[in-house]
Structures are given as C-alpha cells and as structure tokens.
Amino acid sequence: LSQIVDSVAALSCEATKSDITSFSSLDSGDGFGNKDAISVAGDLKVLLNGSKAVGKLEIEEVSKIPRIHGKFRDVVRSVHSD
C-alpha cells in the first residue's frame, strides 16, 4: 500500500510542477532524522529521477509528503506487528 501511496505522491509532484529539493534536506547525517521520512524521500527521489515535469514551485504541502508518508509507514508497521 505504501508503494502505491508514494507513486501517487510522485505523480502529484509532477502534476503540480513542485520543487522537490526539500526531499534532500531531510537526512542531516547525524543519525537523529526520522528514518521513515528519510526513506520516503529517497523513494520519491528515485521515482522522480530524470523527470522533466517537476519544477520550481515551492508548495508547502509537497514538502510535508515524506514526513506524512513516513508516519503512515510507521503506523502500518505497528498494525502488522500486533
């Protein structure tokens, strides 16, 4: 399910011509970052690699996608572990 959600988010980034450079700033390298959000950002960067449709529009909601989807992954993992 998370792969589908991330794919739809990537398509949304392209449709809105969003700036995705904020996805690169999540991993500070200090080990204190949200691992799920960093993972989502990495997956989105792979999905959007080479895309000519992403643009320069800074949309706050798009910059929140990795954190929101990261929390979603955490919840799904917790549901499946019970």
UniProtKB/TrEMBL annotation:
This is Uncharacterized protein.
